[in-house]
Write a structure and sequence with these properties.
- The chain is of the alpha/beta class and about 280 residues long.
- The chain folds into 2 domains: about 1-75 and about 100-235, 2-enoyl-CoA Hydratase, Chain A, domain 1, CATH 3.90.226; about 235-275.
- Helix content is about 40%, strand content about 15%.
- The protein has helices at about 35-45, 100-105, 110-125, 145-150, 180-185, 190-195, 205-210, 220-235, 235-250, 255-275; strands spanning about 1-5, 10-15, 20-25, 55-60, 130-135, 140, 155-160, 160-165, 215.
- A 7-stranded mixed sheet has the order 1-2-3-4-5-7-9, sandwiched between helices. A two-stranded parallel sheet has the order 6-8.
- Helix 1 (about 35-45) packs across helix 3 (about 110-125) and helix 9 packs antiparallel against helix 10.
- Bound molecules: acetoacetyl-coenzyme A.
- Acetoacetyl-coenzyme A binds near residues 70 and 167.
């Protein structure tokens, strides 16, 4: 298994044949995420080897992720030459202008939006049709942690999972691409209720709402993900990609448009499988 630690971002990246595993690896900080985490995630997506078919996103330790590093809420840090590095940033690489919301707010509006777009880039690739992404979620999945789980195609959770969209309670909005999948899964009214109360959604409710495909005891999470991965890999790659593309497009199409899309994909499959045979 090839392994890489994506320097200072709190992420570990591993490859095993057609399976890539991205691990949030700051358990001592409950896998709090920073801009460095999101930049590294974006780079992983860009450089993902072509052979990868399944991407597993998991967190080391008791929590999947406690969300955004709360150090972001601290006042703007002084230049590091004159002051020691704040404790919450030790061991994490810095992205200019992202040490704190105060530093980010000092930038122009266009620059601020660009920073957020860069962070979102770390999440968006997980929906690519040529891969299936699986979040393996135990313990807390708060804010950015909940959104990272939502960025994946599928969520396998441990019985102790605690999803919480805490951003509005902190004066922010969920901006890491989580609002659309949340609404697609639970609908607007339930999404409003979950986000605007910042309450915890546990495993039983997550299953009922469709936020999780499967809930298992914590010590069975790894095995459940491996079983699902094996089942996904047993299906023809091209057919899986075409089917995911079809399913992803379905909510935006009319029935007639979807039928046309099915025809187009199937014609390509039939030609690819049987032409000249
Ligand atoms: N940022 C920075 N440090 C964090 C952290 C975070 N989000 N979450 C936990 N930590 C640190 C704690 O400060 C503590 O550090 P020390 O050992 O140095 O004191 C360590 O991780 C362990 O934390 P706890 O002792 O609190 O662990 P716990 O298991 O008792 O509780 C927890 C876990 C419920 C996640 C709790 O730590 C917590 O509530 N964390 C804050 C969660 C939060 O509010 N996150 C922001 C979400 S909003 C968001 O994500 C915004 C966005 O996307 C835009």
């Amino acid at each position: 298994m090839a392994e890489a630690v994506t320097g200072g971002s709190g992420l570990r990246f591993e490859m095993d044949g057609e399976i890539a595993t991205v691990t949030l690896n700051r358990p001592e900080k409950r896998n709090a995420q920073t801009f460095a985490t999101w930049s590294a995630l974006a780079r992983i997506g860009e450089d993902l080897p072509e052979q990868v078919r399944v991407v597993v996103v998991r967190g080391e330790g008791p929590s999947f992720s406690s969300g955004l590093d709360l150090g972001m809420f601290a006042p703007e840090p002084e230049p590091p030459a004159q002051h020691p590095e704040p404790a919450q940033h030790r061991g994490t690489e810095r992205v200019p202008g992202t040490d704190s919301f105060a530093a980010a707010a000092a930038r122009g509006d266009a620059e601020l939006r660009r920073l957020i777009a860069e962070a979102q880039r770390g999440f968006l690739w997980l929906r690519r049709p040529d891969i299936v992404s699986i979040a393996a979620v135990q313990g807390h999945a708060i804010g950015a942690g909940f959104q990272l789980a939502l960025a994946c195609d599928l969520r396998i959770v441990a019985d102790d999972v605690m999803f919480c969209m805490k951003e509005p309670a902190l004066g922010l909005v969920p901006d890491l691409t989580g609002t659309k999948p949340l609404v697609d899964i639970v609908g607007v009214p339930r999404a409003i209720e979950i986000c605007l109360t910042a309450r915890v959604v546990g495993a039983a409710e997550a299953l009922r709402l469709g936020l999780a495909e499967l809930a298992v005891p914590p010590d069975e999470l790894g095995r459940a993900v491996r079983d699902l991965t094996a089942a996904l890999l047993a299906v023809d790659r091209e057919a899986a990609t075409a089917t995911k593309r079809l399913l992803q497009g379905a909510p935006q199409r009319t029935l007639e448009e979807q039928a046309a899309a099915e025809r187009a994909e199937q014609a390509a499959r039939i030609r690819s499988l049987f032409a000249g045979s």
